[in-house]
Design goal:
globular; about 20% strand; about 450 residues; alpha/beta; Arylsulfatase, C-terminal domain
Length: about 450
């Protein structure tokens, strides 16, 4: 009897432990989307970084699928607009990073945003970290479908004081200004873990939008006096350049980037502790090319340009049992493809009027479909730099002012060998495609003003 009682007790303990773990629901997996800010293509170990330790992001690459040819926009606001709409950001007139001059800019409410569609499908939704899609609360994260928002609205923030470049407090919980002492990266991680804990028994979508390693380059574990590193340059008060005296260092940048990697490890552990790993699609990416302290190798140029160094970014997807581990893919992708892939993975109904332009890449990543040839477009229209670009298959046409440059990216990832003189036919063909694309997106954008 004693042995039987002991076995029964052990059985009950096991059943209790099992009951505390939510059952996997393949129809409604969780999604955790992690995005870093202004980080170079080559700044992670799995992308060749020799001097920055990113073991947790590298773990995602070992346990999932790593892209070599994934793209964002050249700045943060356009990329985030494309993610939330699943479409080219030009259609909603969010073509450049919002600054202080853009306080009246708003992202239109359509009821078809990524978080809103997921919310309609029974998901708990949260954005923790950077928004950068406008300041008006009636058009803020909650209005676009996020049940919970904790973070800041501007493009950059003081990591310690949580103020924007204009000195105004810029930390919110939902629509309410809040104060929360701590290093911004750590606050984002802590709130993300809390959201996982609070929603472990229901499907959830969590966007973790780290501001690291965006300037000001303020490394962690310093006193708040580290804020003095931010220079004073009017509306770009946080901007730091190599001509500062003294300039920020690569070591500062590395320390700032290693901190979100630690956060990724803590979030992954929170999923593991609650038995959610196999039922959670984890996506890691970045919002644009790296800044001057970044390592964009082997690409040319940096953030704020349409050269590869400005728009090609890391991207990793991990979903145990659903996606292969340790695979590298040359499939060309773009941020809005993540939108389509998330909606497909979660079996979320997508109304036809959402008119998604992103592509669900999951079957390709599983090896169930061959690599698909893509044609993708970019436009940079700023007083100091005007560029257009299209990538079609391996070919990229870059319109840099009056110059037309043609590259075969399958052989020339560093864009060193301009082939325009050899293939004027292809230059003309791709130029026409850019013109057709511009006409299309601009006609839709113009309708917003009517």
């Amino acid at each position: 009897m004693t042995r039987i009682a002991a076995l029964l007790a052990l059985s009950l303990i096991g059943m209790t432990g099992f009951a505390q773990r939510p059952a996997a629901n393949p129809q409604k997996p969780n999604v955790v989307l992690i995005m870093t800010d202004d980080v170079g293509y080559g700044d992670f170990g799995s992308y060749g970084a020799p001097d920055i330790r990113t073991p947790n992001i590298d773990r995602l690459a070992r346990e999932g699928v790593r892209f070599t040819d994934f793209y964002a926009s050249f700045q943060c606001t356009p990329t985030r607009a494309s993610l939330i709409t699943g479409r080219y950001q030009q259609r909603v007139k969010f073509e450049r990073a919002l600054g202080e001059r853009d306080r009246e800019a708003v992202l239109p409410l359509t009821g078809r945003s990524l978080p809103q569609l997921l919310k309609n499908n029974g998901y708990a939704t949260a954005l923790i970290g950077k928004w950068h899609l406008g300041w008006k609360p009636e058009f803020g994260p909650n209005a676009h479908g996020f049940d919970y928002f904790f973070g800041f609205l501007s493009g950059s923030t003081d990591y310690y004081r949580h103020v924007g470049a204009d000195g105004r407090p810029d930390l919110f919980e939902n629509g309410t200004p809040v104060e929360a002492p701590g290093y911004m990266t750590d606050l984002i991680t802590a709130r993300s873990i809390r959201f996982v804990e609070q929603n472990a028994t229901r499907p959830f979508f969590l966007e973790v939008a780290y501001n690291a390693a965006h300037w000001p380059f303020q490394p962690p574990d310093h006193s708040s006096t580290a804020s003095r590193n931010a220079s004073s340059r009017g509306p770009n008060a946080f901007f730091q350049g190599p001509d500062d005296d003294p300039p920020a260092t690569r070591a500062d940048y590395a320390a700032s980037l290693e901190r979100p990697d630690q956060g990724v490890g803590q979030i992954l552990q929170a999923l593991e502790d609650r038995g959610l790993t196999r039922n959670t699609l984890v996506i890691f990416t970045n919002d644009n090319g790296g800044e001057w302290l970044s390592r964009n190798a082997p690409l040319f140029h940096r953030k704020g340009s349409l050269w590869e160094g400005g728009i090609r970014v890391p991207a990793i997807l991990r979903w145990p049992g659903q996606l292969p581990a340790g695979r590298t893919t040359a499939q060309v992708g773009m941020t809005m493809d993540l939108t389509a892939s998330i909606l497909a993975a979660t079996n979320t109904p997508v109304p036809a009027d959402a008119r998604l332009e992103g592509v669900n890449l999951l079957a390709i990543l599983r090896g169930e479909a061959p690599l698909a040839e893509r044609t993708l477009f970019w436009r940079l229209n700023a007083p100091a730099r005007q560029q257009l670009a299209v990538r079609s298959g391996p070919w990229k046409l870059l319109v840099d002012g009056a110059d037309l440059l043609l590259f075969d990216l399958s052989k020339d990832i560093g864009e060193k060998n301009d082939l325009a003189a050899r293939r004027p036919d292809l230059v003309a063909q791709l130029r026409r495609r850019i013109q057709e694309w511009e006409k299309d997106v601009d006609s839709e954008a113009a309708a917003l003003s009517q």
